[in-house]
Every structure is written in structure tokens, then in C-alpha cells.
Design goal:
Strand content: 15-25%
Distance between the termini: 42 Å
Shape: globular
Oligomer: single chain
Number of helices: 11
Largest sheet: 7 strands, antiparallel
Order of helices and strands: EHHHEEEEHEEEEEHHEHHEEEHEHH
Bound molecules: zinc ion
């Protein structure tokens, strides 16, 4: 099975190398902005001509947005637009032009109704202050040195890694991986090397193909499994979160930017903001790391993994940091499980976002109308069951899989199948689960439940 996968390693750049990378990222921005200005000028010109009643065939010729066309135009203009062009790799300009080509395509597709999701705005000029510096190489000398602690890129030369690249190097040596592109990017005050790699994976099957596990992602602990296991947060995460909160408070006491008055942030604010960004990146990294270990273990063992859908509405409404971090965990665990179940030959089921996994009794299926966040224990009024709130939710998720399989649709899985199959109510299931249009909200009756339980889905 061939998959596209990213490998990311932290870099230790020397000051000279950092200047070189920044020069390349700057060049990417220059090419992007130059090409955007050109596209905009022609669009504005045509719009103006149209408003004077110029017939369509006499309008200024439109310019192509494709990457080859943008590249051709840039190569003709670069001597004038960027007389220093020879000092950086041509890949730097390509980075900027490619980003613009994709941005324009996304905007056009979004406007033409060919793209789902939130409407995409017209590409904006990239500012030096706000753009995350990054440059991508797709051709030339891209390799990992045999010591696995250094990488080589065109123009930038030999860069030192902060961590060993042995995992990727081993695959390349074995001939099961091929680097397609390499990107150097700054993230939260650190530099990273990230490779897009085509990987040939062996077909696998989970060690227990018939086993199902429900996963409830939490805040206090990383996750609770329907098996009763509490997966603790990674060590250091609690400390890193406390540091992030403290830094956030410190930041709020300093003079930040104000758009209304045009006030520029103080130097102290900028330094504090940089520290917050670093702490944020560290929390995210620690959490992601813990989730990776968990998702690898789960997908290698269990044939079916069930998680909850991302709570989009809750995400928008909640501004607390803890919730924010947990929500990021939701998205991340789903992303990881989606591709890892595919690798391992298992399947991922995603419970509908309206499925009351926390409010349903995993023993008898009764749904409670109210359950506050403060109630850490689930107590069932109908059957008297008392157990940990998250464990109850995880068990409900696991039970959904059995219900889904007996609902007449059969196991959905298999390699190549849509792994993000949504578990939906009986009505939706008739229309083939997973193919229901986005935004439609089906409801799963809890444990062979009756319709009155389905309706009883107040949050
Ligand atoms: Zn009960």
C-alpha cells in the first residue's frame, strides 16, 4: 500500500543558516506578492473595462493562474522585480508561486461551488511580520546524511538536526520510502525540517480484528478507553500547560497592539508573545506525542476504533484554554486514527456529533436529560449504575460499533473504504452511512432504543 506521509524533525540552525533560510522565505514572499499584484491588476483592469461597456472579446487578456504560467511570467520579470534573484534557490520563488496558485484555485473553486467548507477568501499579500517563514524544495540535492543527524538541501547545504532522522533514513535505505519534497519552516520559535514522503507500507491486520474499543478524549487524562483503561497525559504536559497559562497572564499585562488606535505593541509584549508561542508549541507537541503513542497501540491491536465527532459548536462557544486544548486533541486523535486504521487494516467509526455518549447509560441505555461538566461520575437513575463519566462515554462509543454492524449495513471497513464512516441513525443508514451530505445531523438511537430516546437529545 502506497501512502503519502510527513516526517518532521527539529533543526539546529546556525545564525548564518537561519539568515539564509529567512532570505529564501523572503524570496518566496516576494514572488507571491509580485504575482498576486499582477493577477489583481489584470482583474481590476478587466472589471473597469467591463464597467465602461467594453465587449468581452476586447477586454485586456486575462492571465492564467496555473503554476507553470505564474512561473513563466515570474522568470521573465525576475531580473527587474528581484535583481538579487540568483542569490537564492529557484525553489524559493516556486514556494511562493505555488502557494498563490493554490490559493487562487481554492478561491475560484469556493466561489464556483466546487469546494465544500467555509468560503475561501481571495489571496492576500503576505507581510513580513505575519507570515510564517517557510521554503519548500521539490528538486535537487535533498537527502539525509548517513549519520542521520544532518540533512542536505539545495543552496542551504548541510543542516544539523536536533533529533535523529533514523526512522525515515531506515525506510529510504530499505527502498520503501521516497522523499517528494522538503520544507523548512519556523513553528513556535523553532525551525523544523519536514519531508513529504511516499511510503510503501506492508499490508497488516490488527492483532485482534474482532475487538472494538471506544475512545473518549479528555482533559484531565489523555483518553479513557472502553476497556476501562485510563491513558494518562504525557509527563511534563501538566507543567507545560501551567507555564503556558502563566505566560498568557504575563502577556495580558503588557502593552499589546491595538488595531483601532493603531498602537504598536511594546518590545516587552513582543518578547512575551514569542514566549507564549513557544510554550503553545510545546504543549501541542507533548500532547501530539502522547496521542501518537496511543493511536499506534490502538490501531495495531483493535479491529474497530470508535471516537466522537469533533464538537464544532462547542468549540466555537468555548473560550477556556483547557477546552481549547482538548478540542485540538479531538481533531488530532481523529486525524491520526483515520490514517493509522487504514495502515493497520482496521476501521474507524466516528459517532455522530449529536450522539449523547456522555448522557447515555452504558448499562441500560437510558438517556439523562442533564449532565453537568462538574459531575465526574455517571449515575443512572433507571438501573442504578455508577461509574466514571468518561468510561461510561467510552463504553457507549464501543457499543455503537456493534449496533452499526447489526443495523443491516454490515461492516463497512476494509482497506480503501472510507474510514471516516459516520455512525448514523436508522433513517440515515438507509441512505448509506457516510454518504449523507455534510451538515446533516442524524441521530443514533442508543442501544436499540426507541424513538422517544432519540428525540431526547438535549445537551
Ligand atoms: Zn442505566
Amino acid at each position: 500500500m502506497k501512502t503519502i506521509q510527513a516526517y518532521r524533525f527539529a533543526l539546529d540552525l546556525t545564525p548564518t543558516q537561519e539568515r539564509m533560510v529567512l532570505a529564501h522565505a523572503g524570496a518566496a514572499r516576494v514572488a507571491h506578492n509580485w504575482a498576486l499584484a499582477r493577477v489583481k491588476a489584470v482583474m481590476d483592469q478587466r472589471a473597469a473595462e467591463r464597467s465602461y461597456g467594453v465587449p468581452d472579446e476586447q477586454l485586456t487578456e486575462s492571465v492564467s493562474w496555473s503554476l507553470p504560467a505564474l512561473r513563466k511570467a515570474w522568470n521573465q520579470a525576475k531580473a527587474e522585480a528581484a535583481p538579487w534573484w540568483a542569490e537564492v534557490s529557484k525553489e524559493a520563488f516556486n514556494t511562493g508561486l505555488d502557494a498563490l496558485a493554490r490559493g487562487l484555485k481554492n478561491w475560484a473553486d469556493s466561489r464556483g461551488g466546487k469546494r465544500a467548507g467555509r468560503p475561501v477568501g481571495f489571496p492576500r499579500f503576505k507581510s513580513r511580520r505575519r507570515t510564517i517563514p517557510s521554503v519548500r524544495f521539490t528538486t535537487g540535492a535533498i537527502r539525509i546524511e548517513s549519520d542521520r543527524m544532518h540533512v542536505v538541501l539545495p543552496r542551504l547545504g548541510r543542516l544539523k538536526l536536533h533529533e535523529s532522522a533514523r526512522k525515515l533514513a531506515r525506510r529510504i535505505e530499505a527502498g520503501t520510502a521516497r522523499i517528494m519534497s522538503a520544507t523548512v519552516r519556523r513553528d513556535g520559535g523553532r525551525w523544523f525540517m519536514s519531508y513529504t514522503v511516499e511510503v510503501e507500507r506492508a499490508e497488516r491486520t490488527p492483532t485482534r480484528p474482532d475487538s472494538t474499543v471506544g475512545v473518549d478524549v479528555g482533559i484531565k487524562q489523555l483518553a479513557v478507553l472502553s476497556t476501562g483503561e485510563l491513558v494518562p497525559n504525557p509527563r511534563h504536559l501538566v507543567g507545560a500547560q501551567a507555564r503556558l497559562r502563566a505566560l498568557g497572564r504575563a502577556l495580558s499585562h503588557k502593552t499589546g497592539p491595538d488595531r483601532r488606535t493603531g498602537r504598536r505593541p511594546s518590545n516587552r509584549w513582543q518578547r512575551a508573545a514569542a514566549r507564549v508561542a513557544t510554550a503553545h508549541a510545546r504543549v501541542a507537541n507533548l500532547r501530539r506525542d502522547g496521542l501518537h503513542k496511543l493511536t499506534t497501540r490502538l490501531t495495531r491491536e483493535h479491529g474497530t476504533v470508535v471516537v466522537e465527532d469533533l464538537n464544532v459548536i462547542g468549540m466555537l462557544a468555548n473560550r477556556k484554554l483547557a477546552r481549547h486544548i482538548a478540542d485540538a486533541g479531538f481533531a488530532e486523535i481523529r486525524r491520526q486514527l483515520a490514517y493509522k486504521t487504514q495502515w493497520s487494516g482496521g476501521r474507524l467509526l466516528v459517532a455522530d456529533r449529536w450522539y449523547p455518549s456522555s448522557k447515555t447509560c452504558s448499562g441500560c441505555g437510558t438517556v439523562r436529560t442533564k449532565l453537568t461538566l462538574a459531575e465526574r461520575e455517571y449515575q443512572c437513575e433507571a438501573c442504578g449504575l455508577v461509574l466514571d463519566r468518561d468510561l461510561n462515554a467510552a463504553r457507549n462509543l464501543a457499543a455503537l460499533a456493534a449496533e452499526f454492524d447489526t443495523a443491516g449495513s454490515g461492516p463497512v471497513a476494509g482497506r480503501g473504504a472510507d474510514q471516516k464512516t459516520c455512525v448514523r441513525g436508522r433513517v440515515a443508514a438507509k441512505r448509506q452511512p457516510g454518504t449523507a451530505p455534510a451538515g446533516q445531523t442524524g441521530t443514533v438511537p442508543p442501544q436499540g432504543g426507541t424513538t422517544d430516546r432519540v428525540l431526547n437529545r438535549a445537551h
